[in-house]
């Protein structure tokens, strides 16, 4: 009989197990929010980096062809020669892989030349996480005219 009591006394009760599961759930909820916030910040940083890279490629296009692509030609002019083909268009285009990269949320970048924000240049932007114009935080537009970074409440 004594060995039966000892065996029962060495396990965990249902209440103890439920308490541990509850604590783990609370901790994972707190950590999960922090991790997702960092993922969102990473995507914004990646969008800014891609925009800066595309700006450099557009500058190369301008140096070769004497002008930026028109709004109608868009960023596709970097991978497919527009019509009529510019005289010094780089064979194979200006982007590796023959395609314009999507923004970190899987949408396309937007291009306007001359821009509304950069009248003597061009505007290049992503609509952010929500994919529509405007917004705040991670939903804010990310463009080559905006220099400040949002910390999304961190």
Mean pLDDT: 84
Tell me the number of structural domains: 1
Q: Please tell me the CATH architecture by its name.
A: 2-Layer Sandwich
CATH topology: Glycoprotein, Type 4 Pilin
Distance between the termini: 59 Å
Q: Which radius of gyration do the C-alpha atoms yield?
A: 26 Å
* Number of helices, counting only DSSP H or I runs of 4 residues or more: 2
Strand composition percent: 5-15%
The sequence of SSEs as H and E is HHEEE
Give the full name of the CATH homologous superfamily: Glycoprotein, Type 4 Pilin
Gross geometry = elongated
Strand arrangement within the widest β-sheet reads 1-2-3
Protein described:
The chain contains two helices and three strands; from the N terminus they run H-H-E-E-E. It is mainly alpha-helical and 154 residues long. The protein has a single domain, classed as Glycoprotein, Type 4 Pilin. It has a three-stranded antiparallel sheet, with helices on one face. The longest helix is centred in the first third of the chain and has 52 residues, at 14-65. It starts with a helix and ends in an 11-residue tail after the last strand. The model has no long low-confidence stretch (mean pLDDT 84).
